[in-house]
Amino acid sequence: MSTYTLSNFRSIPASSLQDFTKLVFDEKDVLTLDDDIRVRFTNFDKAIALGNSKTYKTAIIVKTTTGLAKIETNILSHDAEYVYTGNKLKIPIKCIYSVDFY
């Protein structure tokens, strides 16, 4: 049985780019279930498709050594290890807890 709970990430304040670049991430993946990892990659692809939309915003929720953090940015691409954003961030995939659209 899963121990995951649903969270409303919209209440997390967005970090500035400067603050976000100072965050420290854990070495292990924040997601453990294969289905959750699959959904994470599906959301990356969805974020890339919606990247230039004026209707939707994309927020990336990451788990740091001190808790959760959020940055609002568009996702340009990803590979097996990193997500690349429009504001020149290279975020390790293993620390990304969620991609939220609103």
Query: What would the principal axes of the Cα set say about the shape?
Result: globular
Mean pLDDT: 88
Strand content: 25-35%
Major sheet strand order: 2-1-6
The percent range for helix content is 10-25%
Q: Give the number of helices.
A: 2
Main sheet: strands, sense, barrel: 3 strands, antiparallel
SS content category: alpha+beta
Distance from first to last alpha carbon: 30 Å
Number of strands: 6
Q: Low-confidence stretches at least 5 residues in length (pLDDT < 50)?
A: none
What is the element string, with H for helices and E for strands? HHEEEEEE
Rg is 13 Å
Short structural description:
The protein is α+β, with helices and mostly antiparallel strands and 102 residues long. The chain is built from two helices and six strands, in the order ααββββββ. Helix content is 20%, strand content 29%.
Topology summary:
Blueprint: H1 17-20, H2 34-49, E1 58-64, E2 67-72, E3 75-78, E4 82-85, E5 90-92, E6 96-101
Antiparallel strand pairs: 1-2, 1-6, 3-4, 4-5
Structure description:
Helices cover 20% and strands 29% of the residues. The protein has two helices and six strands, in the order H-H-E-E-E-E-E-E. It has helices at 17-20, 34-49; strands spanning 58-64, 67-72, 75-78, 82-85, 90-92, 96-101. Strand 1 and strand 2 form a beta hairpin. The longest helix is centred in the middle third of the chain and has 16 residues, at 34-49. The protein is globular, with a radius of gyration of 13 Å. The relative contact order is 0.25.
